[in-house]
Amino acid sequence: MTLTALVQRIGCAALCLTLALAPLKAQQTPPAQGQPADQRRPAEARPPGEGLPRLPPDATTRHKLDLPGRSLEFSSTAGTIRLFDAASGAPQADMAFIAYAKEGAQIRDRPVTFVFNGGPGYASGWLHLGALGPWRLNMGGEAARPSAPPALEPNPETWLDFTDLVFLDPAGTGYSRILGGDDVRKSLWSTNGDVTSLAVTIRRWVQANGRELSPKFILGESYGGFRAPKIAHVLQTDQGVGVNGLVLVSPVLDFARFNATGSVLSYVARLPSFAATARERKGPITRESLREVETYASGEFLSDLMKGVNDAPTLDRLSRRVADLTGLDYALVRRLGGRVSADVFAREINRPEGRVSSMYDGNATGLDPNPFSTRNTAEDQLRLGLHAPITQAMVELYRTRLNWVVENGRYQFQNEQAGRQWDRGHNPEAVNDLRSAMALDPKMGVLVAHGLTDLVTPFFETRMVLDQIFLTGSAERLRFETYAGGHMFYSRDEARKLFRADGERLVGRP
Fold first, then answer.
1. What CATH code would you report for 17-256+388-507?
2. How far apart are CA 253 and CA 270, in angstroms?
3. Which terminus has fewer CB within 10 Å in the chain: N or C?
4. Sequence spans of domains, the chain
């Protein structure tokens, strides 16, 4: 889900993890709805980490949902997979998961999709309750406020119709917990350690549930879209698990190229999203309606930026065009040399109304607590407005529908400590992993999905990155889709429907 600028140092030592001594067994006969299944592992075999509450045994329940035009029967399993150090055998993490499997499907042919959000430091609640899972939390409009009721409803756009779903929470998020000391924590909160732990968890789940023959997909949002190609490559080359396809939702694929201080490419990348935000206030938008903005941004705008800040006629020309496209005051844009940051845009576009745009959707706004300040001091309305409802909805889901209750334990929807302490390293990028994974497996398909008014991970940035990847085979192998909306575009009903259709198209490819 959501993104910070903190990423892992590429090249840190990967966390070495192995199978637990007693492998998990797939639940074959789930109980009736609302009743816990037979425990797959006795509690005595799961000693808690020092000072941590005991996690319950895995629990499986059965459910039936009446959805428009169909009835959906499925089982759900909530539990954990314990990871160990290869050398010492010491436990290092309990990785929490929630798995949904459609009843009556043949697992040999049934696809399974592994899902996680980003941050780093976020659990998978955004995608779980916003887009893919069988139950959904309203995330649009007035729902983005802390006191909004966390009421779950059946999700007509669930992906469970065409793929089983396994939602994974990285170490230190959700109910996943780190059992080792500082060295383990530092490794898990790093690019390579994070990728390895999730790859091992996926491989362990596949083996425990007999899904070796199932088509496998990986879906990650935001920083999860950064880690997804890396996980796929590790699964292919180290864990011995093939991946049929990737879904990258609002990803960042190259932090260094676009996010360096003063990078002219960052201004190029964000200008189409600024224009999309301004234009959507007047009516519906599509990417086609923004083509001339993309052409200007990567052409004349980039050329003028490269001329520097000492050419007055160029600055005048550039500033007038940027002001026209963004709806910002020309005097402000000229004072900034035509170089408008996302934070400034989010603040200034709504200043007359005393509101501030969310960085995660330029047209989702919140009240400005300090309207006369020169700085933007507002909390992000979309991201933090939904923090409490999603957290409470996930706790309710675990307790009343999945029958998996953690006594005295906290569900960490966002772990700010992980985000702050993430080992960023230098030149972090996932482009080479994506390129290598696709080259290694010519049958792998990729869907990249973006919202047009996302100011955090602008769609045009990813489009420019993908244009530098030489693609062999059918153009359908790598699809780039955009929707009206922001970072979590699926909070909008129409975008969520289109996204589901595009996901089904990927999963159903030959």
1. 3.40.50.1820
2. 15
3. C
4. 17-256+388-507, 261-378
